[in-house]
Amino acid sequence: MKTENQILLGGYRKISPSSILMLRADTNYTITYLVDGTHFLSATTLGILEERLKEFNFYRTHRSTLINLKYISFFESMSNHLNLNAEIRINDSVNVPVARRKIPEFIKRMQLMAIS
Questions:
Q1: For residue 82, what pLDDT is reported?
Q2: What's the order of all strands across the beta sheet hosting 72-79?
Q3: pTM for this structure?
Q4: Measured at the alpha carbon of residue 9, what is the angle toward residues 5 and 15, in degrees to the nearest 5?
Q5: How would DSSP label each residue in the chain?
Q6: HSE-up of 59 (CA within 13 Å, CB side)?
Q7: Which residues 6+ apart lie within 8 Å of 10 measured at CB?
Q8: How many CA atoms lie less than 13 Å away from 93 in the CB half-sphere?
Q9: Per-residue tens of pLDDT for the chain, all 116 residues
């Protein structure tokens, strides 16, 4: 993991990755939600921001959401004979679903974080 500094989120806005709670895609824009409860829109796609944040502790739970793993407060995985579902709670307030195909990778990533 990279040491803390600021990344460019679009335009001239630079921000510390540790202050980002999550990012959500909105067509060719991204809504960035901060730990302090504020949010803003940037004209940069989630894919580009994911690339900029790859050296930090972020995870893409599905096509439209990228979360900061530092703020996970709860993870629940449910399965029945037909489906496997999972949901993450970040910062004790926001529930984020995890795509079915991403669940095994997410669990593995969380186990690796627990070890280190």
A1: 58
A2: 72-79, 84-90, 94-98
A3: 0.84
A4: 35
A5: -PPP--EEEETTEEE-GGGEEEEEEETTEEEEEETTS-EEEESS-HHHHHHHTTTSSEEEEETTEEEEGGGEEEEEEEE-SS-EEEEEEETTTEEEEE-GGGHHHHHHHHHHHHH-
A6: 21
A7: 30, 42, 43, 44
A8: 8
A9: 444 688 888 778 899 999 999 999 998 999 999 999 999 999 999 999 999 999 999 999 999 999 999 998 887 777 665 567 788 888 888 888 888 888 888 888 888 877 76
- Both tokens of residue 67? 């979360």
What type of residue sits at position 59? Y
Place of tokens 């984020």: 96
Q: Which amino acid is at 72?
A: I
